[in-house]
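Sorry to interrupt, but I need a hand with the structure work. Could you write out one complete protein record for me, on any chain you like? Just paste the record in under my message, thanks.

. . .
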Amino acid sequence: MLQGTPYIYQGEEIGMTNVAFESIDDYRDIETLNIYRELVDEKGLDPQGVLTILHAKSRDNARTPCSGTTAGTLALLWDLHG
């Protein structure tokens, strides 16, 4: 039997919300950047509307630091591990 149980935290477990970047320049995910350029530059969609879509769908949402205070976040993660 293996010791421990691996966990993957995606943010919902500790109440994190998606990041709302104000500009496409703040995104780092290559897929997000490619989709933005395709929809805005090639298809002529409204840049602000595309940013709204990316706010919900971008993989950069999973790459932001944990929110809250360090002590509070660590205590909550400790409780989740039981």
Q: What stands out?
A: The two ends are 19 Å apart (CA to CA). The mean pLDDT is 78. The helical segments are 30-42, 47-57, 70-81.
